[in-house]
């Protein structure tokens, strides 16, 4: 279980939590865990209506198909690609921070891949399947800190299981009843999972989901040692890239704007202590 329920009732300001953690180290010589600093509620109860194992299996299948298609077109980055190595290095610092947000993340087989495309896009499927497109790295000229903010944001969607909740909402009562019947052995669960899998790359998350992912992603990146101020510069770049008609498709599902930037600015101080602690 995610310990956010506890953290919600004891959301200390970042500096105070950092100082108390430091005091614990000084007194005992043991590194004390630091509670979540951003204030988000518990995950949606609707997610329980869609089986996690089946959704993650469908995501793995969809991800494998995407990689196979990219490989056949010669646009899947090879393991020796400097850009891919850079992404995997960032992921290696973020993944250890994930289990406090979702215990299931311990079981996930995390993957990071890079597709050569002008698209400004990145995603993380349920179960930890991450993909970046070269366009988002090159056109926005992202620093490692900014890249970590995007990766943290996308990982947060998976950790908070937004896809499970959105699918439950979008499919409606009929799908819920169908899933329930299959869970009790009254149908073919694999058929439903396959149908769900085809939706994962086209899901539109709600504004609340986006805010949730912004804040959880901000904290993930800070805990991994990436400067939280980069979240602000990232979305400023996004806002510039989105000017005029025909803007990046990424911004159709992740709209930028003053409110988003202001909210991130307000939360940067909350995770500053975590960043400083990670930098040691």
- The fraction of residues assigned to DSSP E strands is 5-15%
CATH class call: Alpha Beta
Characterize the main sheet.
3 strands, mixed
Q: What is the tally of helical segments?
A: 12
Report helical residue fraction: 55-70%
Count of domain modules: 1
Q: Shape from CA axes?
A: globular
User: What is the succession of H and E elements?
Assistant: HHHHEEEHHHHHHHH
State the separation between the terminal residues, measured CA to CA. 29 Å
Radius of gyration using CA atoms only: 19 Å
**CATH fold-level assignment:** Collagenase (Catalytic Domain)
The helix/strand class is mainly alpha
Strand ordering within the main sheet: 1-3-2
What is the CATH-assigned architecture?
A: 3-Layer(aba) Sandwich
Overall pLDDT confidence: 77
Number of strands: 3
Low-confidence stretches are 1-33, 184-194
Could you characterize the architecture of this molecule?
There is one protein chain. This protein is mostly helical and 280 residues long. It has a single domain (20-279), classed as Collagenase (Catalytic Domain) (3-Layer(aba) Sandwich), CATH 3.40.390. Helices cover 58% and strands 5% of the residues. It contains 12 helices and 3 strands. It has helices spanning 4-9, 14-28, 52-72, 82-94, 134-139, 144-159, 162-183, 189-197, 207-223, 230-241, 250-253, 258-279; strands at residues 111-115, 122-125, 129-133. Strands 1-3-2 form a 3-stranded mixed beta sheet, sandwiched between helices. It is globular. 42% of the residues are buried. Mean pLDDT is 77; it is low at 1-33 and 184-194.
């Amino acid at each position: 279980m995610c310990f956010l329920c506890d953290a919600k009732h004891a959301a200390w300001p970042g500096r105070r939590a950092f100082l108390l953690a430091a005091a614990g180290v000084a007194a005992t010589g043991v590194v004390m865990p630091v509670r979540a600093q951003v204030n988000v509620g518990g995950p949606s109860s609707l997610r329980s209506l869609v089986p996690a194992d089946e959704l993650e299996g469908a995501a793995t299948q969809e991800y494998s198909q995407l990689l196979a298609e990219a490989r056949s077109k010669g646009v899947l980055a090879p393991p020796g690609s400097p850009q891919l190595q850079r992404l995997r290095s960032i992921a290696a610092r973020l993944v250890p921070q994930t289990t406090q947000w979702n215990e299931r993340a311990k079981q996930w087989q995390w993957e990071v891949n890079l597709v050569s495309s002008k698209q400004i896009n990145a995603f993380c499927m349920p179960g930890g399947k991450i993909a970046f497109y070269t366009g988002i790295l090159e056109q926005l000229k992202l620093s490692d800190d900014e890249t970590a903010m995007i990766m943290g944001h996308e990982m947060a969607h998976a950790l908070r299981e937004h896809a499970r909740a959105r699918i439950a909402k979008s499919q409606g009562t009929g799908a819920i009843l169908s899933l329930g019947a299959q869970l009790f052995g009254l149908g073919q669960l694999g058929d439903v999972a396959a149908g769900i899998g085809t939706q994962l790359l086209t899901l539109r998350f709600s504004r609340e989901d986006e805010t949730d992912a912004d804040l959880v992603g901000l904290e993930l990146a800070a805990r991994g040692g990436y400067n939280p101020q980069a979240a602000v510069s990232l979305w400023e770049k996004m806002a510039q890239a989105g000017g005029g008609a025909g803007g990046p498709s990424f911004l159709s599902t992740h709209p930028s704007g003053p409110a988003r930037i202001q909210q991130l600015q307000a939360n940067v101080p909350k995770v500053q202590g975590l960043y400083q602690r990670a930098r040691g």
